[in-house]
Amino acid sequence: MSSTRNRHNIQLAAFYFPDYHCDERMEKEHGPGWTEWDVVQAARSRFPGHRQPKVPLWGYGDEAEPEVMAKKIDAAADHGIGTFLFDWYWYGEKPFLESALKRGFLNAPNRHRMTYALMWANHPWRNMHPHGWNEPVRTLLEGDVTPRSFDRLCGILLEEHLQRPEYWTICGKPFFSIYDITRLCENFGGIPPLRKALDQFRARAERAGLAGLHLNLTSRGETILPGERKSNAPELVEELGFDSVTSYIWIHHMPLRDFPRSDYRQLRTRYLAYWDRAEREYSVPYYPNIMIAWDASPRTVQSDRFLHGTYPYDPVVENTPEQFAETLRLFRDRIALRPEEQRIITLNAWNEWTEGSYLEPDTESEYRYLEAVKEIFTE
Questions:
Q1: The pTM is what?
Q2: Residues 99-123: pLDDT tens digits?
Q3: Tens of pLDDT along 267-292?
Q4: Is 275 exposed, middle or buried (0-12, 13-18, 19+ CB in 10 A)?
Q5: CA–CA separation, 335 vs 13, rounded Å?
Q6: What b/e sequence results for 131-141 when a residue is b if at least 16 CB atoms lie within 10 Å of its CB, and e otherwise?
Q7: Quick one: which of 20, 299, 300, 28 has its CA closest to 140?
Q8: What's the average model confidence in pLDDT over 137-141?
Q9: Distance, CA of 242 to CA of 238 (rounded, Å)
Q10: How many Å apart are CA 90 and CA 83, to the nearest integer?
Q11: What is the dihedral of CA 230, 215, 334, 367, to 10 degrees?
Q12: Are 145 and 187 in contact (CB under 8 A)?
């Protein structure tokens, strides 16, 4: 679908965080017209040399507008990124933050240039927009489901997404990722009933005329957000019948050691060791992940102290386009040795502005991160 030929037939899929449009449940909490752009704009430097606020080169656009999303699609496709992996939420028996996808992406006139897929972020939604140093964590929306709710969720996925021509498939099967499999096991009361539900989901997909499902696990050995569960148990992958594993971001596999800054290259070395371990431990393909950077400080109350604590009071991991290009080359050369159908890399992220990990151009680096992707992965 992309107009840019990918070198070595490596597929690049970038996670997309859809909180840059108005949603009635967020407006109820934060006020009319609120989006996460408000958090981006309020950010300030928290220590000497800290580069905040980040300013988007394209302005603070409404991602639910098709013309705004069309610009994102063209930029991604022109630079070799073939898929957006939308963070997808389900709270109170209905989707949440879905307008970026349903109103924006699926109505963009150039949507045929990319595919999309869903990563079900089934964690609780906490009030972190922003969060004070001593403030109790409040849960705004629960991430748990019942078997009945999950059955309804599967029906909506099949009806509204998995059969669309723009939906990403691997070997003909629609890709669907689950963020917190440990929580989902708890919701179902154990592995056997969840395996039965996932098998029923596959069977429904086949009855709908699909080749089945490609179920993906988002592995996580360290937690970041309050309420997350670890989900890196290799035995779960086999017992639940998953087809592949990936990661959302590197720091889900290692704690950040130095405050206020941690070194990107050192973190990369530690992640490469995890990649080695994941390939040994999992019985299915592990799709490696590339992190751009990390800076959750915009989600802190800017007038509070900035000390080392729990999220979002984390160390900052800054990057440069040159270091990012080094990472791209390392990953390209390593994954090119795989069978073609397993040459998949996930990227964090297209637009995690309030966590400091984004490919969209800002006023400082402009298009240099995207240009590195294009130079190294396309021809």
A1: 0.97
A2: 999 999 999 999 999 999 999 999 9
A3: 999 999 999 999 999 999 999 999 99
A4: middle
A5: 14
A6: beeeeeeeeee
A7: 28
A8: 92
A9: 6
A10: 21
A11: -90
A12: yes
- Mean pLDDT throughout 225-242? 82
Produce one character per residue of 174-210: b if its CB has 16 or more CB atoms within 10 Å, e if not: bbbbbbbbebbbebbeeeeebbebbeebbebbeeeeb
Residue 192 main-chain phi, psi, to 5 deg: -55, -45
Classify strands 351-352 and 357-358 as parallel, antiparallel or unpaired.
antiparallel
| Structure confidence at residue 376 (pLDDT) | 97
Q: What is the pLDDT of residue 86?
A: 98
Q: How confident is the model over 177-189, as pLDDT tens digits?
A: 999 999 999 999 9
CA pseudo-torsion sign 159, 161, 164, 168: negative
Query: Are the C-beta atoms of residues 50 and 56 closer than 8 Å to each other?
Result: no
276-289 core/surface letters (b: 16 or more CB in 10 A; e: else): eebeebbebbbbbb
The mean pLDDT value of the chain amounts to 95
Helix axes 191-207, 181-188, angle to 10 degrees: 100
Interatomic CA distance for residues 372 and 365, integer angstroms? 11
> In whole angstroms, what is the distance from residue 214 CA to residue 176 CA?
6
**Joined tokens for residue 107:** 């109505």
